[in-house]
Every structure is written in C-alpha cells, then in structure tokens.
C-alpha cells in the first residue's frame, strides 16, 4: 500500500465493538491497516486508545476510507494545516468550505406559525 495515514480512536472501543467495525471498514473499502499503538483501559470507566496506520493503493482510496472512518469517531493523528484563501466576494464562501455557524441562523421547532399566533389560532 503506497499511501498511508495514521489515525487515532478513543473511547470504549473494545466493549462497543468499535475497533472491530473500524478495521472491518478498512478491509471492506480495499485498504490495509497496522495497529501502531494500543492502550486498553484498565477499568469500566477508562477509555481505550488505538493508533492505526491506514494504507491504500492511491490517495483517492485513502480519502474514501478516512471519510468512512470518521463516522466511527476516528481522527487523523496529524490533521495538517488549515488552508487559507480569500473569499470570492463578501458574504460568499468557497464551494468546498464547510461551516455551521458563520451565518445567521434560526431555530425551527414545532408549534403554531407566527401568522397563526397573530390570527389568534
């Protein structure tokens, strides 16, 4: 496997079956793995930690595997540096920008609408 990334997962990864699901997903997506560090918790309240080197044949395959593993709480050990670039114009983010908090938002909840409340319904 020519491309690798070291990832880490913490938590109750043994009793929850999390580590097994992570390693199974790597294999299912055509990758390979090597457990680099494993520190099991000593008691029921203790977290376990696993550092795993994920391998793939090409960068796209590695990226797909890493995206899948994020659903299990797996994080890159070295996430890299942030990419900074100017916005195309005021109030516009680049197409690949992701954020949930930079713009004004409103909470939606069940209940009568404002028009219903004003009409006395």
Gist?
Helices cover about 25% and strands about 25% of the residues. With about 120 residues, the protein is α+β, with helices and mostly antiparallel strands.
Task: Please give a structural write-up.
By secondary structure, this protein is of the alpha+beta class. It has a domain of 74 residues: Alpha-Beta Plaits. Helix content is 24%, strand content 23%. The longest helix is centred in the middle third of the chain and has 12 residues. The model has no long low-confidence stretch (mean pLDDT 84).
Quickly name the level 1 CATH class of the domain at 3-76: Alpha Beta
Question: Biggest β-sheet, characterized?
Answer: 4 strands, antiparallel
What series of H and E elements makes up the topology? Answer: EHEEHEH
- Assign the CATH superfamily of the domain at 3-76: LOR/SDH bifunctional enzyme, conserved domain
Overall, the morphology is: extended
Question: What topology does this entry show?
Answer:
Layout: E1 3-11, H1 18-28, E2 32-39, E3 48-56, H2 59-70, E4 75-76, H3 114-119
Antiparallel strand pairs: 1-3, 1-4, 2-3
What structural keywords apply?
121 residues; alpha+beta; Alpha-Beta Plaits; four-stranded antiparallel sheet; 24% helix
